Amino acid sequence: MAVKRVTARLATAVMAAVVGGGLGAFALTPASAGAAVRTAPVATTVVTKAAAASCATGKYQKQVETYLKQIGGYGTVSVDGKQSAADCTAIKKFQKRFGIQPAQGLAGPTTYDVAKRLAATKTAACKASKKGVTFCVDLTNQTTWVMKDGKVYVKPTVTRTGMKGYRTPAGTFKINKRTRKEWSDPYKVWLPYWQRFIGGRGFHQTTTYIHDKWRGSHGCVNLLQQDAAKYYSIGKIGSTVKVIGRRPGT
């Protein structure tokens, strides 16, 4: 009787530790009155359910799944409109990459909008030169990418260009000024990773939330920090910039 009581207490304590996370993916269960072995089913079930429950199913779940599968690179997704642990992980990764806040795996309107724009971007539309580097900006989809020797060198990412009254012009330009950090006299802000290509317009790291589309820029091509830094590392005086399309509403 004493052995049975000790074994029961041991099993109860171990189960509590598993649920609380103290034993990770392993639980101990008695194989006999005086021995114990490792087993995982209970802990694995708890972890899997917790991971799946960490993300709600968003309004645009199936659409986002479709676009992420088309874009690729964010993990395995199932196009069924139902949130799974794998879907949640992929959506979070996508949200973190493109600065979508909060990055909680919910397929909301901003995530849907960004995924749709990236999926709609046709890199060949830039008609980049077969030699050298070309920075491409798609005003219609509000995306940008880099071509080198006629091939995609930096995959499409998000941008925010000029709002109504400050439209970023389409055309072919050359980078004519570069500074690690430029001061804007009109707007009294620093512009990190500045690369000017026409008038007072150029590439730079955004100083506000890039997905606040209604704000827009004053004609510049706003970039996320990691993209602005990448562009700055690639660009040089004389690099070609091709701007195509037109931003909706401008």
Automatic annotation (TrEMBL):
GO terms for biological process: cell wall organization; peptidoglycan-protein cross-linking; regulation of cell shape. It comes from Actinoplanes cyaneus. Residues 1-27 form the signal peptide. Coiled coil: none annotated. Residues 133-244 form the L,D-TPase catalytic domain. One of its GO terms (cellular component) is extracellular region. SUPFAM superfamilies: L,D-transpeptidase catalytic domain-like (SSF141523), PGBD-like (SSF47090). The active site is at residues 204, 220. The keyword Signal applies. Keywords: Cell shape, Cell wall biogenesis/degradation, Peptidoglycan synthesis, Signal, Transferase. It comes from the Bacteria. Pathway: Cell wall biogenesis; peptidoglycan biosynthesis. GO terms for molecular function: peptidoglycan L,D-transpeptidase activity; transferase activity. Gene3D superfamilies: L,D-transpeptidase catalytic domain-like (2.40.440.10), PGBD-like superfamily/PGBD (1.10.101.10). The lineage of its organism: Bacteria, Bacillati, Actinomycetota, Actinomycetes, Micromonosporales. This is Murein L,D-transpeptidase.
